Amino acid sequence: MPTDSERQSVISIARRRYAAKAFDPARRVPEEDLRTILEVGRLSPSSFGYEPWKFLLIRDEALRAELAPIAFGARGVLAGGAELVIILYKKGVVYNSAYAAHIVTDVLGVDFDPDSQASQMFKGFQERMLGLTSAEDVDHWAQRQTYIALANMLTAAASLDIDSVPLEGFEVAAVTDLLAAKGIIDPAEWGVSVMVGFGYRAEEIHPKRRRELDEVVQVIG
């Protein structure tokens, strides 16, 4: 059973996590630490284990410069020389898609059959349980999955004493067009979900202000 000290250690990591706005350009995240953060993202849970995401680590200086005008939320990351990761979501993840076949066959190691019990269960999960009735619904579901990986990476960074910032402050269409023009993504296959920066803050952490637990949590029963 965990001790009070171990529980407080977990809470301390949550308190340590802070959305940094300015980063120290003189300090770089060690490669092994960054790989650990990305590995935690890779190992994140997803519905049916379909992993509808991809992480783009943006280090090309020319591309970073082109992103700055269309990603105002990332300017502190870019100016501070911090690592920038763009999280993509996979489009069209349905029971009989080529991507589903890839995951089932190449990742899960099972023969793929769209008429199998597992495939039909996934179909029912999307269509009946979640009510995903259009391609747009399916893509929104996949996009939501990426935030699981994002949250895990933020916590992993904090546990390594590395600062981070989740970023939605960017022009989605413009960023998508830029990545497509560079041949980095096929926008028919991948959509831009969210960005995240990792580095070392050049500012003080302020105490978190949150609602009390009793206001956030309602116990039923």
Label this structure with key terms.
single chain; alpha+beta; 4-stranded antiparallel sheet; 9 helices; globular
Describe the SSE topology:
Blueprint: H1 4-16, H2 31-42, E1 53-58, H3 61-67, H4 75-79, E2 83-90, H5 98-107, H6 117-129, H7 135-159, E3 163-167, H8 172-181, E4 190-199, H9 213-216
Antiparallel strand pairs: 1-2, 2-4, 3-4
Helix pairs in contact: 2-7
Describe the structure in your own words.
It is globular and about 55 Å long. α2 (31-42) packs antiparallel against α7 (135-159). 45% of the residues lie in helices and 13% in strands. The longest helix is centred in the middle third of the chain and has 25 residues, at 135-159. By secondary structure, the protein is of the alpha+beta class. The protein is built from nine helices and four strands; from the N terminus they run ααβααβαααβαβα. The two termini are 25 Å apart. It has a four-stranded antiparallel sheet with strand order 1-2-4-3, with helices on both faces.
Spatial extent as radius of gyration:
19 Å
| Distance between the ends | 25 Å
Oligomer: single chain
Tell me, briefly, the overall form.
globular
Numbering strands along the chain, what is their spatial order in the largest sheet? Answer: 1-2-4-3
The SS-based structural class is alpha+beta
Low-confidence stretches: none
Beta-strand residue fraction: 5-15%
Helix content: 40-55%
User: How many β-strands, per DSSP?
Assistant: 4
> H/E element string?
HHEHHEHHHEHEH
Largest sheet: 4 strands, antiparallel
Residue-averaged pLDDT: 97
Number of H- or I-type helical stretches: 9
